[in-house]
Structures are given as structure tokens and as C-alpha cells.
Design a protein that fits this description.
single chain, 95 residues, alpha+beta, 4-stranded mixed beta sheet, 4 strands
Length: 95
């Protein structure tokens, strides 16, 4: 699966990119029909504490899956987005 990461309004460090790649690749073990994924990392309002947004869109031969979470750290928002996508994938796989 091809993973494309875009950061908006900041430059991510390599550890964050590695973390995102590792988490998204785990989803491909659930469903082999996944084609590619787009990950958007954004900073909302700098003055608010929970301002890190992760949006993940996954394209599959079965359709498209999307999750967006906002937390205090990018790692936490990516984790919650991956959990939401995992639920979506398992639900569609069960149909």
C-alpha cells in the first residue's frame, strides 16, 4: 500500500513520519484490498491545547474509508484515527 503524508503549516520530524507509516501499514494486514492512503497532519489554532489534527483517507478496491481526530499530540490523534479506521475496515469486511 502506498502511503502519502502531507503536513500543513509545519515540518514533521522523521520520528513522527516513521510512527505514521508504521501505524498505517498495520492496517494493510487487516485488508489486502487497500490501495493507497493519504494522511494529513494539521495544526489548528496554536493557542488551544488540543490543536493537532490527523486526517487519514484510505482507498480500497471496496471503497473509501476516512477518519479525522483532534488531540494534544499527533501520535495520539493518529492512534485514534487508526482505531476508527480499523473499526470501519472490520465492519465492511464482515459484510
Amino acid at each position: 500500500m502506498k502511503i502519502e503524508i502531507q503536513s500543513i503549516h509545519f515540518t514533521p520530524d522523521s520520528s513522527l513520519l516513521d510512527f505514521v507509516n508504521k501505524k498505517v501499514k498495520k492496517l494493510s494486514q487487516l485488508d489486502y484490498s487497500l490501495i493507497n492512503s493519504d494522511v494529513f497532519l494539521k495544526i489548528d489554532k496554536p493557542e488551544s491545547p488540543d490543536n493537532k489534527i490527523a486526517e487519514i483517507r484510505i482507498h480500497s478496491s471496496r471503497g473509501e474509508y476516512f477518519a479525522k481526530k483532534k488531540c494534544g499530540t499527533f501520535e495520539e490523534s493518529v492512534d485514534l484515527s487508526i482505531q476508527a479506521l480499523r473499526k470501519q475496515l472490520l465492519k465492511s469486511k464482515g459484510k
